[in-house]
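Sample intake sheet
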Amino acid sequence: MRLISLGCPKNLVDSEVMLGLLQEKGWIPTPEDKADVVIINTCSFIREAQEESVETILTIAAAKERGECQRLVVTGCLPQRYGEELLKELPEVDLFLGTGELHQIADLLEKSAKGELFQKQFIGPPTYLYDHRTPRIFTTTPGSVYIKIAEGCSNRCSYCVIPQIRGKFRSRMMSSVLLEVEQAVSRGVKEINLIAQDVTAYGRDLGDSTDLVRLLQSLVRIEGLRWIRLLYTHPAHITPDLIGLMR
């Protein structure tokens, strides 16, 4: 099995989660020329990203035609945005998964291998959110990891497609984020990059007092953690408390 991850760090976290779920079911990452299954986790945010995704799919489809792999799976933002079109235009692809179905990757591949899968496309409203219990294989440098603290966006800006392809903004529970960070630090991680479409909106959807400042106040107390970075912050949601804490 080979996984190609395109796009932003949020996509990379999704790819690492898929790798963890696949490994849990016995799938083993293999060198490029020995993979029976190739998974491409795509991006479709801007035109250049869409073009890169399509070019990568066509490259692997050609390799499949030459017998260099047996199955081609396309996941993430591109099928979430253009699912029906891709189904018609890319018959070489064996399986399409949207952003809300990535957690099904291992089970669907297993069914596909047994001939028990009778559709090629799994795309629905994105609601899935991983947590600290979700298997994950880190692919970044040993001392640094990305931690996704929220998914989606509810701003509905006229120029942006994120709510369509990622769903509404939904935060992880703070206890889950803290446990994931503690687990990472116990493995020697020194730097964490907190990521979301808008990390400064973290917790506002939970209906309690959870917010980014409270999360950071807890994170800075974790022994062994040296650096915390925030990707991405919305200027409208940066508060005096956050500025004071960072200072």
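Comment: Strands lie at 2-5, 37-42, 71-76, 95-97, 121-122, 144-148, 150-151, 170-171, 191-195, 227-231. Helices lie at 9-24, 47-65, 77-89, 105-113, 162-166, 174-186, 212-219, 240-246.
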